[in-house]
Amino acid sequence: MSTHGLPDLVCEPLVRAALHEDLGRAGDLTTQAVVPAAARATMSVTAREAGVVAGLDLARRTFSLVDPEIRVDVSAPDGSRVEPGDVVAVVTGPARGILTGERVALNFLGHLSGVATATAQVADAIGHTRTRVCCTRKTTPGLRTVEKYAVRVGGGVNHRFGLDDAVLVKDNHIAVAGSVTEAVRRAQQGVGHLVSIEVEVDTLDQLRELLACERPVDAVLLDNMSPRELAEAVALVDGRLTTEASGRVTAETGPALAATGVDLVSVGWITHSAPVLDLGLDDLGRP
C-alpha cells in the first residue's frame, strides 16, 4: 500500500511530547553514564514477526530531534510487508542519541505497524469482494491522525476524523429526537449543504423509515446485523445510499459480511486494540 507519509507538522508535536515524557527532568541517566560521548553505532530496526510497516516518519523524527547527526536509512518503507528477520531501517550515528531515542521510536513504529497489520488482516480476508475496511473514532487520545494514517497504510479507508467532519446520527440521537424521521429532519436543517449525513439503524424497520424520509441522506450504518439481515438491507437500499456494516468485524467474520454487498465494514479494534508489531533495534557493530 503506497502512501505519501506523515508531514513533520503532524509528527513533531507527538514526538516532542513522547520524548519529554521519557526524558523527564534529567535525561537518559543510563546512557549518559555508560556510553562515551564520542561513541558511534550502527543498528538495524528488524522485524521479529510478520506484518505491515507503518510509522517510520515518527521514528525518523524521534532520532533527529534527539540528535540531528543520526541518519535513518529505510529498507522497508511504510506499507511494506515484512517477515521475521527483515531489516526495516538502519540507524547510524552517535550511540548516545540512538539509545536515548530507541524506545520512543519503537513505540511509535510498533504501535502503528500493529494498526496497519490488523487492518491488512481484515482487508486481505475480504479482498475478493468490493467491500472496504474503514476505521472509527475509537482511537488512542492524541494519536487519531497517525492511527488513521496507519489504517490507510494497511489497506483500509478512513471514517470521519472528528465530530466536526460529518453528521452521524446514532441510536442515542434517535432516542432523544423520538424517531429516525425526526432526527434526520433536524440534522438536515442544522447543517450546511456540503455536510454529509449518515444514520445508524439497528433494525430493518428503522431502515425502511430512513428510506421513506422526504429528503435522502448520504449513508446508512447497519449496526450489529446478521449476514442475512445485511443482505436484505442492501437489497432495500438498492444503491441509493452508501452502506456500512459494523459490529464484531474480524478477519473471520468479515467475508460473510462483505458477501452481502455492503460498501464498507467499520472496525473499531484495528485502532483501539491492535497488537503491537514486534520490532527490535539490533546492534550491527561500529560503523
Task: Please sum up the structure shown.
This protein has eleven helices and twelve strands. By secondary structure, the chain is an alpha/beta fold.
How does this structure look, described?
- By secondary structure, this protein is of the alpha/beta class.
- It folds into two domains: 8-116 and 275-283, Quinolinate phosphoribosyl transferase, N-terminal domain (Aldehyde Oxidoreductase, domain 3, Alpha-Beta Complex), CATH 3.90.1170; 124-272, Alpha-Beta Barrel (TIM Barrel), CATH 3.20.20.
- 42% of the residues lie in helices and 18% in strands.
- Strands 6-11-10-9-8-7 form a six-stranded parallel β-sheet. It has a four-stranded antiparallel β-sheet with strand order 3-5-1-12, with helices on one face. It has a two-stranded antiparallel sheet with strand order 2-4.
- Helix 8 (204-211) runs parallel beside helix 9 (227-237).
- It is elongated.
- The two termini are 33 Å apart.
- The model has no long low-confidence stretch (mean pLDDT 96).
